[in-house]
Design brief:
The complex is a heterodimer of chains A (about 210) and B (about 210). Chain A is an alpha+beta fold and about 210 residues long. Chain A is built from 4 helices and 12 strands; from the N terminus they run αβαββββββαββαβββ. Chain B is an alpha+beta fold. Chain B is globular and about 65 Å long. The N and C termini of chain B lie far apart (about 70 Å). The chains are: A alpha+beta (about 210), B alpha+beta (about 210). At the A-B interface, loops of A face strand 2, strand 3 and strand 4 of B.
Chain lengths: ~210, ~210
């Protein structure tokens, strides 16, 4: 009896999932891609708060960290954790500058193909500019609120770090609302963006670390 | 003859003291009152022990998140991720076993894995078999065998808490772990300092 109840519940939840997430048609994909690309192109600046949830199978609850993110086209990015610790990263001019509670370090992205890819991935997942069919096998889904893209890396080096990236776009505004990055071990990191503001004045001085 | 004996005693004691580890130098060894010392930090099965980590190695600095979790009576998971969440390593540790569930390819070098193994097995060791006991003004010090080395456990006389572990060979200190504790099952700040290589790991509790 208990088993059958569980089975019914499982079926029901599976049906709900199916009902929620549907594959996009070819026409919908084209429309969606055009809309996102247009938004990405017109996005000169983007500021947003974020909450990051790190899920690992053996933990009793996800590790929650939060902060703010500022992006300025074409490629300046500040990623700043303020809770529960101070840690910020600036991506600028092919360099990554890290400020770890006052301790600073710098990396040259230009020297590392891997970092260049990660950099592009982070900037791309914020701006939405990541439909690179050469880099990823991409599939498209939709729910009532979101358009969803699932990206599976083609590059062997990237595959070692990332099994799949899932980007949820707000249907209104076509900007990224949530990113889920799944590791080969199936542990994952979810980043939820909120309080987004586009094209506000952002001075370059924001991107100093 | 007598002068010879004094000279012999002097040189041998000088030799002896230069060989002896400085950890308990000048302290009298006593028969231990306990046969084993159980470490209670990291012992709560319900708690995810999450720390902001800082690693200083040969002048370079790295940050990350260190997580320790007691999974059952004997088994720990010890994992490390970047601030962005990417996993760098994930180990399974008991008092006498070590298994790599995952390690980033770039870190998968024998010397790195062995160093991490020694550090985290020491940090998460739950039961130390006491061989000798010492005492200074502040602490009771338990000397415990650990493979070919010894662990000296400093237990504060006032509050009964473990404040330091010194991992040493017969003559040299190798690793010093300092605990700044919140209570018996939680050390808020932990510093793992290597004496033979320039490596220092600082852990600050965040969750």
């Amino acid at each position: 009896m208990k088993n059958s109840a569980f089975y019914v519940l499982f079926l029901f939840s599976a049906m709900v999932t199916f009902a929620q997430e549907q594959k996009m048609s070819a026409a919908e994909i084209t429309t969606f891609k055009n809309a996102v690309n247009a938004t990405a192109k017109s996005t000169k600046t983007l500021t947003t708060d974020f909450v990051q949830y790190k899920h690992m199978d053996f933990l009793s609850k996800d590790i929650e960290t939060s902060g703010k993110m500022v992006f300025k086209a074409p490629g300046m990015l500040l990623w700043q954790y303020t809770k529960p610790y101070q840690y910020s990263v600036v991506f600028k001019n092919n360099k990554i500058v890290i400020n770890d509670a006052g301790k600073k370090s710098e990396m040259n992205v230009g020297n590392s193909k891997m970092f260049a890819k990660l950099n592009k991935l982070i900037v791309g997942s914020v701006s939405g500019d990541m439909f690179d069919e050469n880099e990823f096998t991409i599939s498209y889904f939709k729910t009532a609120e979101h358009n969803i893209t699932k990206l599976v890396p083609k590059d062997a080096a990237l595959k070692k770090y990332i099994k799949q990236m899932e980007l949820n776009f707000d249907k209104k505004g076509n900007t990224v609302a949530q990113v889920k990055m799944t590791e080969p071990s199936n542990d994952y990191t979810t980043i939820v963006f909120k309080n987004k503001a586009t094209n506000a004045q952002v001075p370059d001085s924001v991107f100093t670390n | 003859m007598r002068r010879f004996l004094i000279l012999y005693l002097l040189t041998s004691s000088a030799l002896f003291s230069s060989c002896a580890v400085k950890t308990v130098k000048g302290l009298e060894a006593k028969t231990p009152k306990v046969t084993a010392y159980p470490v209670t930090y990291f012992s709560n099965l319900e708690t995810d022990y999450v720390y902001k980590a800082h690693i200083a190695i040969y002048g370079k600095d790295f940050g990350g998140i260190f997580i320790a979790k007691k999974v059952n009576d004997t088994l720990y998971r010890a994992a490390f991720t970047t601030e962005f969440g990417n996993k760098l390593f994930d180990f399974e540790i008991t008092d006498d076993s070590f298994k790599v569930n995952y390690i980033l390819e770039e870190l998968d070098r024998k010397i790195i894995v062995n160093t991490l193994k020694r550090d985290f097995m020491l940090l998460l060791k739950t039961k130390h078999n006491v061989a000798q006991q010492y005492e200074d003004d502040k602490d009771i010090i338990y000397k415990c065998s650990d493979g070919g080395r010894y662990n000296y456990l400093f237990v504060n006389k006032d509050n009964g808490r473990l404040s330091k572990i010194v991992n040493a060979t017969k003559s040299k200190e190798k690793i010093v772990v300092n605990f700044n504790e919140e209570n018996n099952i939680l050390a808020k700040n932990i510093v793992i300092d290597h004496k033979n290589i320039k490596l220092k790991i600082t852990l600050n509790y965040i969750q």
